[in-house]
Amino acid sequence: MARIDLNHIRHAYGANPKSDKDYALREVHHSFEDGGAYALLGPSGCGKTTLLNIISGLLHASHGQLLFDGKDVTRLSTQERNIAQVFQFPVIYDTMTVYDNLAFPLRNRGVPEADVDRKVRETLDMIDLASWARRKARGLTADQKQKISLGRGLVRSDVNAILFDEPLTVIDPHMKWVLRSQLKQLHRRFGYTMIYVTHDQTEALTFADKVVVMYDGEIVQIGTPAELFERPKHTFVGYFIGSPGMNVMPVAVEGKRAKLGEQVIDLPGAPKAEGNGIELGIRPEYVRLGAKGMPVTIRKVEDIGRHKVVRASLEGREIAAILGEDDHVPADPHVTFDPAGINLYDKSWRVEMGA
Amino acid sequence: MEKTWNNKAWFMVLPVLVLVAFSAVIPLMTVVNYSVQDTFGGNQFFWAGAEWFEEMLHSDRFWAAMGRNLIFSAIILAIQIPLGIFIALNMPRKGWGVPVCLVLMALPLLIPWNVVGTIWQVFGRIDIGLLGYTLHALGFDYNYVNDPFDAWVTVIIMDVWHWTSLVVLLCYAGLVSIPDAFYQAAKIDGASRWAVFRYIQLPKMQRVLLIAVLLRFMDSFMIYTEPFVVTGGGPGNSTTFLSIDLVKMAVGQFDLGPAAAMSIIYFLIVLLLSWVFYTVMTNYDVEK
Ligand SMILES: Nc1ncnc2c1ncn2[C@@H]1O[C@H](COP(=O)(O)OP(=O)(O)O)[C@@H](O)[C@H]1O
Ligand SMILES: [Mg+2]
């Protein structure tokens, strides 16, 4: 296991990148701590796979430096970096048995056959395919194949890190849950450094101690699930995490007050930024619906079981609020914002509010 | 919905049936017909039963030609299949090299058989041919007209030059269908170049290889035009393959009965060996 440092990594697939647009990774400067369980969360096309491939050495970054435990590995091959990686779609060796598939990464590295056997059996139990060991891998279902792919990632115990690239995409929901818990257990037991890529926030938030949110070739925030929820550093994180996402609205700031059209909102502090491009973000969980406050018109109420999502219109903008299952929408609806949930953004990035 | 049941659709396949009947079934039947009869010219035929078949199966001339065919096909497969795979593995997968390589590979396939024969006939001549003359000038005792070994080498090189690209193109088609993820996974798993070939590329090429082996076997087993043009079956009988012998017998000597019997035996052997190849190659993985 190792600590992984990414030093100003940039990557462009094209030969002559000119502007930032040509970079699949604009600039990533970050450290993955030894033994950490990280989730890499972001929309499709934001560069997650690119980043993983750079860590594993399948790709060599156009700029920047990569360190494992302080040792420069930027120029090393995949083989020399000793990383396990599981891909989004199953890759299996058709002509081999399930057992041989799992043994393959070990045998390639000259592990003694007795150890191979022990490790493979352990892994087979973990992925629940022990009874299939002697079967040809060819005839298996997609999720069994993906479990084999996963197994090949887990069978090596001496790796620097295990990278998962949306590994559960093709697996059915129940099995997804089981496998994810097993990965977590495994992490607790062996302390592997794990990076788990996903575009599914529930998956990210349940798997990881630290979630790394990527957007458009950059890391926009790294934090615990709670930090991402309470204090999104970028409006994108606000939208992307939470369901429904954060309400973001343009405001004009004057001291400790923000003006939204005709309405005035009291802020918990005076933000350090002023002028154009200031937005106020508040999660639906912090929008209180009642008889006092700013007048809204209700558009729709969605009952989703544990609570209701109220879609309303405030000063001509869509706003979502969350209402308890037993609460009722008042006759003359108004909203207030809980100051604890107010964040301010200047050109999409969060600004601190002074006292 | 109500369906109209009638058999009118069969008329649609009628043209094909007629075509196949005239191009394959009727000629084949004629051959079967000849093979069981004897004639002394004119238009008079007598029933001969299995006589011609017995004669053929006891004829040294037939078995000698058959032996040459088997050896020839074996050599052709032994050279063209590995060479084809090797070239396909080394062809570029992207960039400007791809169309260039594909065109180069397709060129020999586009040349008519007899032209290929003529090219090599001239190319190998020791008086005016570039190859023959050069070899001679360098002190090699090369002469496909007199030396059976040289004749064989010439015919084999000619066939390799003409048909290896077919194997290459088929293998290449199999190779480009392999997703990148397989190579990436192999790198992660620390697979050697050989392991990548054995466990990823070869299995993916298996189907096209089956087709390549069948086509190259049938085609080389039925080789006629090229050796006919280059060596005419000689020197002596050294490059007289079954097809050449067949034509000599049927057209040259007008022995229709034996020639027909030989055709049928020949046909059955091609069919049998193709079936064997097919069965072996498709069952290879199932059994293990
Ligand atoms: N092999 C490639 N060649 C060129 N562009 C690529 C390649 N792979 C990915 N890209 C581009 O790089 C960006 C990031 O892709 P990727 O890392 O696969 O995103 P993600 O895994 O987050 O969906 C995308 O805009 C994608 O189009
Ligand atoms: Mg991806």
Automatic annotation (TrEMBL), chain A:
S-adenosyl-L-methionine recorded as keyword: no
Keywords associated with the record: ATP-binding, Cell membrane, Membrane, Nucleotide-binding, Transport
Signal sequence residues: none
Annotated Pfam families: ABC_tran (PF00005), OB_MalK (PF17912)
A GO MF term: ATP binding
Residue ranges of every copy of the ABC transporter domain listed in the record: 4-241
Keyword flag Transit peptide: no
Similarity comment: Belongs to the ABC transporter superfamily.
Protein name: ABC transporter ATP-binding protein
Species classification: Bacteria, Pseudomonadati, Pseudomonadota, Alphaproteobacteria, Hyphomicrobiales
From TrEMBL, chain B:
Domain ABC transmembrane type-1: 66-277
Keyword entries, A-Z: Membrane, Transmembrane, Transmembrane helix, Transport
Entries under PROSITE patterns matching the protein: ABC_TM1 (PS50928)
GO cellular component, one term: plasma membrane
Record field: transmembrane: 12-36, 70-89, 96-115, 160-183, 208-225, 259-280
Keyword tRNA processing appears in the UniProt entry: no
GO BP of this protein: transmembrane transport
Bilayer disposition of the protein: Multi-pass membrane protein
Pfam families: BPD_transp_1 (PF00528)
Localization: Cell membrane
Superkingdom of the source species: Bacteria
UniProt xrefs under Gene3D superfamilies: MetI-like
InterPro entries, alphabetized: MetI-like, MetI-like_sf, Sugar_ABC_transporter
Family named by the database record: Belongs to the binding-protein-dependent transport system permease family.
Protein name from the UniProt record: Glycerol transport system permease protein
Species of origin: Aminobacter carboxidus
